[in-house]
Amino acid sequence: MSTTNPVIYFEIPVNDLRRGEHFYANVFGFAFEKEIIDNYEMALFPFSESRSGISGALAKGDVYIPTKNGVILYFKTDNIDDTLQKVVEYGGHVLYPKTKNNQYNFFVAEFEDSEGNRIALHQRGV
User: Fold this and answer.
1) Residue ranges of the VOC domain (predicted)?
2) Is residue 4 situated within a structural domain?
3) Domains: count for the chain
4) DSSP secondary structure of 51-96
5) pLDDT in tens, 33-59
C-alpha cells in the first residue's frame, strides 16, 4: 500500500493546443512549457517539486479526445465566481454552478473548457 497520494500526473485532451493554452492561461494565469512527448504535442502546466499537489499537461494527438464524460479534474481556486466569469469570457461554459458543501465547508463548480472537457473547481469555505 502506498503512503503517498495516488495521483501524480494528468493530461487534458485538446483539439487545438494554442486555443487550449490561451484558455487556461487566461482563466488561471498559467504559463506553459511546450514539449513533444512520445510524438504528441504537450503544453505542460507549471510544476515545482517543493510544492504540494500534482501537475499535468494539455495534450494533442490522435489518442487525446476531449469529452465531458469520464474522469473530472478539480482545479483549486481562491474565488470560484471570478474563475467562472473568466471561463465564460474565454469561450467556456458553466455546467454546474457554484455550490456549497456545508458538511465539509467548501465550494465546487464545473465548466466546459474551450476544447469540450468537463473540468471542476474547488474553493475552500470562508
Assistant:
1) 6-124
2) no
3) 1
4) SSS-EEEEEESTT----SSS--EEEE-S-HHHHHHHHHHTT-EEEE
5) 999 999 999 999 998 888 878 899 999
Domain residues for the domain of 91 are 9-124
What pLDDT, in 10s, does the model give residues 60-112? 999 999 999 999 999 999 999 999 999 999 999 999 999 999 999 999 999 99
In the prediction, which pLDDT does 33 show? 96
Give domain status of residue 66, yes or no: yes
Q: Distance (Å, rounded) from C-alpha 118 to C-alpha 73?
A: 8
Is residue 25, in this structure, part of any structural domain at all? yes
CA distance 122 to 16: 26
Instruction: Report the DSSP beta bridge partners of residue 19.
Output: none
CATH code: domain of residue 96 = 3.10.180.10
Per-residue pLDDT at 16? 98
Whether 3 maps to a domain, the answer reads no
Number of residues that make up the chain = 126
Percent helix, strand, coil in the chain, to 5, is: 15, 40, 45
Asked if 74 contacts 122 with a C-beta cutoff of 8 angstroms, the reply is: yes
